[in-house]
Amino acid sequence: MNKQCKLVLVGICAMTVTTGCTVLDRIEEWALAGNESSEDVVHNSYTQNPQTLTEPVDASNPAPTNVVDITAADRNYPGYENDYNADSDADKQDSFGAISQPRLYSNVQSSYKGRPLTKHIGDYVKNMAQDLISNMEYVSEKTPVAVTHFALLDSNLKSTNLLGQQMAESFIHELHKFRIPVLDFKTTDYIRITEHGDFALSRDYLELNSSLPIEYVLTGTMTRHQGGMLVNARIIGMDSHAVVASAQMMVPFYVVDALIPSDGTMPNGGKDGVRFTRG
After folding, report:
1. Domain 120-257 architecture
2. What is the pTM of this model?
């Protein structure tokens, strides 16, 4: 029994000596590494772990990470300098083709100057038409609808402007797209041929048909707002006067001002690019 105990103690001592030698070897390697230059240490680190580093690490060139700087990638695009070294009046595009500072556009009469619009009044009418259809009742493909101009809310409801007229034209288009029967009551029974053109529409009530099977009318009001024009649209029964659909939307002022009368007058007063103010 004593002999077995002595053998166990001898084995434990041998293991301790071996472990101690291993630790000493590691300490010696670390001490020797301290004599190497910083460049050799970085080089050895890069050689052992090439998947974590792409180039030597120093103060002026930090190690890359998984975060991608897309702006830096954009600046490294070969055509970046060409994109932004163009003339100041030309359209400036980045490497992705986006226009950063689009040029100014104006009409012939110079009554409107501004950036190119991404939306026009027809886009806002389209959204209002979808709102009308979403809450519309009783109107179907068998109930003809007429569309009138939108009146100014703070008037006697007998005044409109170019915005109210154009919205009526756009609503005729949108309702027809939804397969709702629309009657254009301004259509005459004949075509008028003149030296100025050929016409089938008229605003003279004596030239129009006074009896049309109109069951509903799409109309509305407009009121000026600090940010543009607030438009209220609704569909009303001709006999019951009941509102069967409604919609409301704010049209920004730059979309409203983009509508230019044919005589060249400016939306806020003036003509031929000159604004008139009361002295």
Report:
1. 3-Layer(aba) Sandwich (3.40)
2. 0.57
